Fold this sequence. Notes:
Shape: globular
Structural class: alpha+beta
Largest sheet: 6 strands, antiparallel
Number of helices: 2
Radius of gyration: 20 Å
Low-confidence stretches: 111-117
Helix content: 25-40%
Distance between the termini: 52 Å
Amino acid sequence: MIVDSENDYVGALKGNQSGLLKAVKGCFKSQQSAQKINKGHGRIEKRTVSITQDLTDIPKFPGLKTLIRVESEPQVYRANIIEYATETRYYIASFVDTAEAFGERIRSYGGVENKVHYVRDVTQGEDASRIRTTPKRANLGNGA
């Protein structure tokens, strides 16, 4: 386990931790926030990172010390039209840091993920692969 090996983690909360995600969404009370605007490739994104160490009413989770909320508001320019969107994601961490530092960690990790995916897809053709882990079932209902 990560915590047993004296390492730390930052992890995204998704549907596989639905109880924890629901509790964090319902109980999150920001203690510190940082905002950053990024521009590039026809896109402007405002990101607000908020953190709290208030774990009241949050289910026990190994090593948990910080809850993180990232609110993203991208504006994309396409064909003279501005498209707006909003997205809120939640993360957990086993250590304490500033909202700005967590924002940088999370953003840089996303960049690493994108680069790894690009390399795997371009060099290995991963997205184009038709190999599946389970075979298709034979159609046995045709009386043959």
